[in-house]
């Protein structure tokens, strides 16, 4: 029962991780630049994502531009695109597989088959967490390095946006869920296997007495 409850808790974490992973992939605010200028009425917030760039004005109007060209993008954005998509696919596969392998469901057959499915789903979650963590770290590193570079003008410097933090949290949820699913599939070893049972050796006199006829009766 405890293992089934732990798997259900890991499944909830994985669901949050999947939704957060998809949201982080699609959100346009991976890096944000706020340009207030001399008048707050003309304040502009520029957001850049993996697929589009958006501009938000203080009047409530906004406009977005899709990034159609792939080769013109920096390497870290191209890598972030591919790895985040892989993370979403692997996490979706993990949800489907662990649904079959969880102990609280009636799918998947016998116990061994459910354990194998649960372990495979946990591996998918771990890989999805790694694929989601790598682009967010790389993207954050590029933002910080450009922000600290003195040769870059202030108007071209950015800060990490909400999509980066969402990606970090989602990757953590997927990693924790994967570890829980993988660890819950291992069977506990029985105590006699580690500590062999003590064998009781009876003396020869007791064996002779239990034989039915004693040699002393014939003397």
TrEMBL record:
Recorded name of the encoding gene: Cldn20
Topology in membrane: Multi-pass membrane protein
Highest taxon of source: Eukaryota
Job of this protein: Claudins function as major constituents of the tight junction complexes that regulate the permeability of epithelia.
Recorded family membership: Belongs to the claudin family.
One Gene Ontology cellular component: bicellular tight junction
InterPro entries with a match to the protein in the record: Claudin, Claudin_CS, PMP22/EMP/MP20/Claudin
Main localization category: other
Localization terms from the record: Cell junction, Tight junction; Cell membrane
Keyword entries, A-Z: Cell junction, Cell membrane, Membrane, Signal, Tight junction, Transmembrane, Transmembrane helix
Protein name: Claudin
Residues making up the signal peptide according to the UniProt record: 1-24
Transmembrane segments: 84-105, 117-141, 161-182
Origin species: Nesospiza acunhae
Molecular function as annotated in GO: structural molecule activity
Stored PANTHER family: CLAUDIN
